[in-house]
Amino acid sequence: xxxxxxxYLSNTWKDGLFTNKVVFCTGGAGTICxxxxxxxxxxxxxxxxxxxxxxxxxxxxxxIATARPGAKVIGIGAVDVRKLDSLQAAADRCVQELGGIDYxxxxxxxxxxxxxxxxxxxxxxxxxxxxxxxxxxxxxATIPYxxxxxxxxxxxxxxxxxxxxxxxxxxxxxxxxxHYRTAPFQxxxxxxxxxxxxxxxxxxxxxxxxxxxxxxxxxxPIASTEGLDRLLPSDTKETYIKSQPLGRVGSVRDIADATVxxxxxxxxxxxxxxxxxxxxxxxxxxxxxxxGKLAYPDFLLSGDAVPNVKGQKKSKL
Length: 317
Hints:
39% helix; Rossmann fold
């Protein structure tokens, strides 16, 4: 189903901005990541999106390709980001079919609400493996191609002109803001995202001399996403949205625009940074998961379990 441009991209950017460029995205069938990729495709890029579910990933690729006539979008399913060989094969196929990799979005992630008492060691490890190890494996599988692209598009320090048309050699890690203040029921993802942030900063330092930029986008509450629906109790959603500094939650377009900014010429000297796109939400004193039926500290003191924890197994303490 083709989406109207205004749903995923503002009118700020000119068409053809990413012509002949290739983006590789893990978690590319997700609500946020698919919007990021769709925006880049609309502006001229071709893409390869990665996921575990074959049907969902291939269907998302076909849908994203409608953003621009003639766009090439490959959907590769059955890829587990926790396994480097799986990602390496996907990256190699992307290069073979599309000609290279200029941009990478490491977006694969896992999250759910659970207290530490509910959180088994295996569940904790699973989130760490998907977010941190998955991001590292994505980097390892694509960094040779990013270095190659960065070399082609190296910006001259005097003229500020790249050696080849457009930009290249850039990676974005999709993170979160939960670990800035910490939040109950989010220990696993807070630890994971802190690790992702540290990884991105290290990439910026180690590969900056080769022309590669590495940055983080940390989305806040984004409408119509599984994350918001899962983490914000329905009985408090209206009150929560009203309490936000801008009086609304974000949209996937907000994240897609931030992505374009970092990958375009506008982001040529931006590296080692975390771009928080949340309307100042994280600076508020409360979060959705600590209100309503999960009000802090009353819910924790009750000893009750967080309801509807998906895939929960009893932990042996």
